[in-house]
Design brief:
Layout: H1 10-19, H2 22-30, H3 50-62, H4 65-76, H5 78-122, H6 124-131, E1 135-137, E2 144-146, E3 166-170, E4 178-180, E5 188-192, H7 204-215, H8 217-226, E6 231-232, H9 233-240, H10 244-256, E7 260-265, E8 268-273, H11 275-279, H12 281-290
Parallel strand pairs: 3-5
Antiparallel strand pairs: 1-2, 4-5, 6-8, 7-8
Helix pairs in contact: 1-5, 3-4, 4-5, 5-6, 7-10, 9-10
Amino acid sequence: MPAVRPGRTLADDLDLLDRLDDEEFVSAALEFTCSALYGSAALRSPLSDARMRERAMDLAAARGPGQQRFTARLLEDPPGVRAWIRRLFEDCEQAFFADTWKRVRGRLAADAQEKTELLRRRGLAATVEAVSPALSLDESGTRIEVDKLISARTTAVDPAVGAGVAFIPSVHEWPHLSVLHRHGWRPVVHYPIAGPELPGPLSVEQFQLRMAALAHPMRMRLCRSLARAPHTTSELAENYELSSPEVSRHLAVLKKAGLICSWRRGRYVQYQMDLKTVARLGSDFLGTVLR
């Protein structure tokens, strides 16, 4: 079952859900109510092991009474919860999901096709980079590293589930990137597509570069001038009683961080603050820590 491809319709996916046995279903459901023990092959099911059941309840209780009630019901009556979830999704499809799917499936299909073509033309490293700055390929080109909170590892080459990683785009998950890597299941990366109204994702390194650039008191003073109007290096040097080389070094740091832009006008190069980029620092911070 873990190697089966997603269905073409919601009904197909719900049929796949019905084909899971109770232990597989409970294990998958607990992924979202408790912490999973990633990378463990010999875990016993909470349906048959008292210690695993107790652990599941303790972790659910830590997340609140709602999670605790759901987990207790799940462990007591897996078939009933499975039927309830199916009805919930079917009701959601009638209420809003079918219309939403019509609006977004074209974008999702286009992004999946774009990533497939990028993989064919430029290889895995470029594709991983395009998916999310939270993903990177190691120097050997054989391991994908994910900047997330949990430290774990899995394999994309498993005879039991087939080789490969499934990449699934989403228009509703920004800025989060989710990774499912339970033992015995094919790894899945659920990644966001930024809408036209949302900034593209920023790497941790680039965000740190911007914050470090703004931490220097002189660069902050220069930014106050550059936010109001374009200036040349010599103008800034005269205004702040600095040497031109010193101003140039500060401007180079700000430009490398993407906080200012420059253009040539005759013999002079003018610099100005990129106000849109600076205005996004708050959302960039949230996107960086929540992804």
